[in-house]
Amino acid sequence: MAKGKKKQDRKKATLGHFDHGAFLDHLSKRIKKIRKAKGFKSYELFAYDIEISRAGMSKYEAGTFDDIRLRTLLKIIDGLEMSPKEFFSEGFD
Q: Across the chain, how many H-helices and E-strands are there?
């Protein structure tokens, strides 16, 4: 360290501010609920229409996934005829 300079403390990021698993579970339930409410009866056809895999869509709705690409989530939200702000307006405190 150069003479006369003090070592600055840095803010350290931490985890544990919310339950990631509960968030993903709520995300999957919200996708499925809105899809059905919007009149898209089949997740397979919905996935086909928005150009994502049917297997992936099945996992997203069932909550059996560990991760989702942001672009994929945006396709789902767009396919549900919503904005991200509208989609996340309920239950994502």
A: 5, 0
Instruction: List the one residue out of 79, 60, 58 whose CA is nearest residue 69.
Output: 60
Share of the chain above pLDDT 70, in %: 94
Contacts 24+ apart (CB under 8 A), 10-17: none
Interior/surface letters 29-45, b for 16+ CB within 10 angstroms, e for the rest: ebbbebbeeeebeebee
Mean pLDDT of 33-51: 98
pLDDT confidence of residue 1:
53
The span from the CA of 49 to the CA of 55, in Å, is 14
Local confidence band at 5 (pLDDT 50, 70, 90 cut-offs): low
